[in-house]
Amino acid sequence: MMSVAASRSLRDGQSCFVGIGLPSTAANLARRLHAPALVLIYESGTIGTEPDELPLSIGDGILVDSALSVVSVPEIFNYWLQPGRIDVGFLSGAQIDRFGNINTTVIGEYDEPAVRLPGSGGAPEIAASCREVIVVMRQRLRAFVSQVDFVTSVGHGSGPGDRARLGLRGAGPVRVITDLGVLEPDPDSAELVLTALHTGVTIEQVHAETGWELEVSPDLRITAPPTEQELTTLRGLRTVGSSS
Amino acid sequence: MASPKIQSLPHAVSELVHDGDVVALEGFTHLIPFAAGHEIIRQGRRDLTLVRMTPDLVYDQLIGAGCASKLVFSWGGNPGVGSLHRMRDALSTGWPAPLTIEEHSHAGMANRYVAGASGLPFAVLRGYAGTELPEHTDTISTVTCPFTGEELAAVKAINPDVAVVHAQRADRDGNVQLWGILGVQKEAVLSATRALATVEEVVDELTPVPGAIVLPAWVLDAVAVAPRGAAPSYAHGYYERDNAAYKAWDATSRDRESFTTWLKTLQEDAS
């Protein structure tokens, strides 16, 4: 449901900076369904890729063969991402907090972490410079925390106005899509609130997996269940080199 | 007659990579110089500062073999699979050698190489604002634009002692051609004091390929032929990425015993 909901939030013709994993699945699903003209950009420098299978890494050969253009890594960050040319940044993480800040660096203290995570990659600048950011993450109590252990990528900082003060030009996270529902920042407080539940999920379930007192929007929606076409297409997405 | 720049890999590594050096093996998921990394392990280099945007399996192997004392990076993991267990072990317990880190974002690392290649002391970018990395990494700072007064991120140039890259092919003069995902190979070579390129093959003539770049022989110190030298990553047009090997590394590297067995096999299997 999470991949389907995430794919629905991409509009045809947008340009999308895609991270590997859940974001890549959702973006490739969208391109096969309602957004055939979606421009997929991977940080490896491939622009306008149309892979017929899902890549395992962000630099698989399949992304090159189907790309409109391939540029170097300095170019993809400096010329394409940094000036704000990309509509949507699609991110995930190990932790996210009530203001949509993301941690992919460490759990615990930086110098003596409980868990060492992969680190920043392209995420900090994707979060800063894309016109908007969509986060796709499984909603679990240990991941949806009041305050992240480490700010790798800035969401809405510590509240309204923080992004502008930091000189971040994109809008930041506009939607967090989980396996339970959808969270969006409140226009006044910038704090994430529950705006949609996926079919069959209760508010109690969402609260049980959220580490802060999550507010529920008065206009709470229910996500339409996946259509037959969405499910068939999702199941048809193979990862390169997988046996099944 | 082939140029004297074309050398055997063991000879080139012994000439160019020394204990204590700052070494950058680059290749962004594509053309990762595994064969050269394995040769560095075989020759028992120690106390290296390893620089690489995406330390993946090749740096996990070098770290596990005890070659490194410092890692400079922006994303350390096994792409699409999980963690680097040897890197984690070295960071948390100091096995087999203590490891310190200098951590950046991709945009920061890419620009550090650009500055290094450009002969500049630092690079300017829109980055890091609001993140916690600048508190832990002293090669990240800020600079004020003299024209607008805007505050921007500044990152220190990288100038490795030696850069190592892998490419599809070289001609007999040692000019090196590579294509597909280009990563930061050109910047790494041009930022370094010394540079080694391994190649799949040497050909009479470098036929033009769309999007290819050429590293002229005179910016390289040595070119070594290493067929399948990027495996289990890939060389576009030659062989594909061995995804199964990346997945299998997770089990091999998970404990010291299975890693040590792997290391012994590598050391006995002289190329």
| CATH architectural group of chain A | 3-Layer(aba) Sandwich
N-to-C CA distance of chain A: 21 Å
Give the C-alpha Rg of chain B: 18 Å
Oligomer: heterodimer
Morphology of chain A? globular
Series of H and E elements of chain A: HEHEEHEHEEEEEHEHEEEHEH
Family (chain B): Belongs to the 3-oxoacid CoA-transferase subunit B family.
Pfam families (chain B): CoA_trans
Protein name (chain B): CoA transferase subunit A
InterPro entries (chain B): CoA_trans_fam_I, NagB/RpiA_transferase-like
How would you portray this structure in words?
- The complex is a heterodimer of chains A (about 240) and B (about 270).
- Chain A is built from eight helices and 14 strands.
- In chain A, strand 13, helix 7 and strand 14 (about 215-225) form a beta-alpha-beta unit.
- Chain A has a ten-stranded mixed β-sheet, with helices on both faces. Chain A has a two-stranded antiparallel ribbon with strand order 6-7.
- Chain A starts with a helix and ends in a 9-residue tail after the last helix.
- Chain A has one domain (about 1-235): Glutaconate Coenzyme A-transferase, CATH 3.40.1080.
- By secondary structure, chain A is α/β, with parallel strands linked by helices.
- Chain B has about 270 residues and is of the alpha/beta class.
- Chain B folds into two domains: about 5-105 and about 160-265, Glutaconate Coenzyme A-transferase (3-Layer(aba) Sandwich), CATH 3.40.1080; about 120-155, no CATH class.
- In chain B, about 30% of the residues lie in helices and about 25% in strands.
- In chain B, the strands form two sheets. In chain B, strands 1, 2, 3, 4, 5, 9, 10, 11, 12 and 13 form a ten-stranded mixed β-sheet that branches. In chain B, strands 6-8-7 form a three-stranded antiparallel β-sheet, with helices on one face.
- In chain B, a hairpin with a 6-residue loop joins strand 7 and strand 8 (about 150-155).
- Chain B is globular.
- The relative contact order of chain B is 0.20.
- Chains A and B meet through helix 3, strand 4, helix 4, helix 5 and helix 6 of A and helix 4, helix 5 and helix 7 of B.
